[in-house]
Design brief:
about 300 residues, mainly beta, twelve-stranded antiparallel barrel, 20 strands
Length: about 300
């Protein structure tokens, strides 16, 4: 006997979903990190990611199961799939606007489930819908050869229900400010950033940081390695007080390592595959995420782009 609990989210942010995903199908220039897009140029990326996790890091950094506080371990599994559309556009020579939206398919599986004094062998909890919408801008402070930029963004709930289990987001409005610096020489580049996120509601503010190094292999191949993390300004909070850990409701401290390899499969169309790994932290999921993305590094009819000064 299988007990199934399913919730499908129809969100008020549907029009925003369509807009961002449409933007993610337009050819564009690809620039990273501290660089800004040339005026009138668009960079777009559409990616799909998935994770199956049976473990997480607790508030002390130890590796444990996904069962809630005080619950016995029984092999609960979190299965997340998401499609993310991202786009950025060069408004002026020194200003780039960007935005992203994620569509999620989430399922948690309990091998043993007790409901109304009945013991059933397995239960599924499903939620499908749009997650949070992020909108921001990046302003160039210094140009080449060592570009420096300042970025600000806001994360807005797309209209999902706060009662969904598992959750599509924490339902709060967050604001983030980052400083970015980059550099490139020949076939290699690097970019780094550090920032502060002000979290809504009872969630802790966070310090954010990342370092990315990448470059070109041979003619059509690209590689990059990324280390990114967050640190809560206060005690990292548990995901929920319920029987299953919910990563969308956690206030984690994280360290994620990401390795990716890409190839230009068609003129102006890049395919990239990567494996971000939750290396350590407090209250994030543990394990590997598989991600595949398509990006458009050409401006239609304008040829290949170089970094903006």
């Amino acid at each position: 006997m299988v007990a199934v609990k399913e919730r499908s989210e129809t969100t008020r942010g549907l029009s925003a979903s369509i807009l961002v995903l449409l933007l993610a199908t337009v050819p564009a220039c690809a620039l990273a990190g501290a660089w800004t897009q040339p005026p009138g140029h668009l960079y777009a990326r559409l990616s799909f990611a998935g994770i199956n996790a049976c473990h997480r890091f607790d508030s002390g950094g130890a590796l444990i199961g996904l069962e809630g506080p005080g619950m016995p371990a029984r092999g609960t599994e979190y299965r997340g799939r998401e499609m993310r559309g991202y786009a950025e556009y060069g408004v002026t020579a020194g200003l780039t606007a960007y935005g992203s939206l994620t569509l999620k398919w989430i399922r948690t599986v309990e091998p043993l489930f007790i409901e109304r004094f009945r013991v059933v062998p397995e239960a599924f909890h499903r939620t499908t819908g749009a997650g949070d919408l992020s909108l921001g801008g990046r302003v160039r402070i210094l140009g080449a050869p060592w570009p420096v930029s300042l970025a600000g963004e806001v994360k807005i709930p797309s209209g999902y229900s706060g009662r969904a289990n598992p959750s599509l987001g924490n339902g709060q409005v967050d604001t983030t400010v980052r400083g970015l610096v980059g550099g490139s020489a020949g076939w290699i580049y690097s970019t780094a950033d550090a920032g502060w996120k002000h979290s809504g509601g009872s969630y802790q503010d966070q310090v954010l940081y990342s370092l990315e190094i990448g470059g070109r292999l041979f003619r059509d191949y690209r590689w990059r390695g990324v280390a990114r993390g967050s640190r809560s300004l206060g005690r990292a909070a548990e995901g929920s007080s319920g029987p299953i850990f919910d990563p969308a409701l956690a206030n984690p401290q994280t360290l994620v390592l990401d390795a990716a390899l890409g190839e230009e499969i068609l003129p102006g169309l890049d395919l990239e595959a990567g494996i971000p790994r939750g290396q350590s932290g407090q209250n994030p999921l543990a394990g590997n995420t598989a991600e595949v993305g398509l990006s458009w590094p050409l401006a239609a009819g304008r040829g290949r782009c170089g970094p903006s000064a």
